[in-house]
Specification:
Arc Repressor Mutant, subunit A; alpha/beta; 12 helices
């Protein structure tokens, strides 16, 4: 299937934006990659890349061709999965784009449990927001997306969804933690009296906070913003700062960190969505993992 390998050359150049970088990833000579790109363009009768001073960019024709290439690659992976199924071997690679809140516990645990009965299955997991997840689905860069607040789109099929509460994270010796004692909830107004460290605006939890603040008299000024939940969690060890995370990722690693539900009346909940590209036939093993994830998510309700 050399022709498929050559199509992969074009795909890698499109992703890397450079023949040299694509060649490094493919472990071939840049001249070989360039030659195959030229062969494809000659056969199509049109350039698929713009040659720029600092790299390569797809032309409009190239974007159409690349969608075809990635669709072919996805179809081939599905066929390979079905062949393995006929052999009685449940193997293959499942590709997932997931929200950062799922990275510490939920998704690693789900993959571990799934591989108990499917030990030959490999996983490629990328962390991203809902915009990156939708883009990856459309470009065949992933089989499944498991992200917060994925907007309804005609070409995205939502397999299942669950609501999630936003939680406040603080040190166990934080004044608010001590004041609330064994209570399970706090108000956002109470949190605003302390230094607040927030995830950036691309995250589901931050979007819930912004939505609530837009119609509330409460004001919050972030002392720190970051795209790293691990960094934000580290900030609360000063025993003064408060951060926020969706419930699925908020369980503390140790007894020094506690969580409290945001209990303001009318505070919105996040929606965790499992989705794939509508009309695409998933590889057998990816479909099996989607079903497995659906059951795990249903158990969260």
């Amino acid at each position: 299937m050399n022709h498929l390998r050559f199509l992969r050359y074009a795909d890698e150049v499109a992703r890397a934006g450079s023949i040299r970088q694509a060649a490094e990833r493919l472990h071939v000579a840049p001249s070989a990659v360039n030659r195959r790109i030229q062969d494809i363009e000659e056969e199509l009768g049109t350039p698929i890349f713009e040659r720029l001073p600092r790299g390569m960019r797809l032309t409009t024709a190239g974007e159409l061709f690349m969608r075809y290439v990635r669709g072919r690659a996805a179809d081939l992976e599905r066929v390979r999965s079905e062949i393995e199924e006929l052999k009685g071997l449940r193997r293959g690679t499942v590709r997932v784009v997931a929200s950062q809140a799922l990275a510490p516990r939920f998704l690693p645990a789900a993959i571990h449990d799934f591989r108990r009965s499917h030990p030959l299955v490999a996983f490629e997991v990328r962390i991203g927001d809902h915009v990156q997840a939708a883009e990856a689905l459309r470009s065949f860069g992933t089989d499944l997306a498991l992200v917060f607040n994925l907007a309804p789109e005609s070409d995205i099929e939502r397999l299942t969804s669950v609501e999630q509460r936003l939680m406040a994270l603080m040190h166990a010796r934080h004044p608010l933690a001590i004041a609330t004692g064994t209570a399970t909830g706090v108000r956002l107004r109470d949190c605003a009296e302390y230094p607040v460290v927030l995830p950036n605006r691309d995250t589901g939890g931050r979007q819930l906070i912004e939505r609530f603040l837009a119609r509330s008299s409460t004001r919050i000024d972030a002392m720190v913003e970051s795209n790293s939940f691990e960094f934000l969690r580290g900030c609360v060890y000063d025993r003064r700062s408060i951060s926020f995370q969706m419930a699925i990722g908020a369980l503390p690693d140790d007894r020094e960190v506690v969580v409290r539900e945001i209990e303001d009346r009318g505070f919105p909940r996040g929606e965790l969505v499992l989705a794939n590209l509508r009309g695409r036939q998933l590889p057998v093993i990816a479909y099996a993992f989607a079903e497995f994830l659906g059951k795990r998510l249903a158990a969260l309700d």
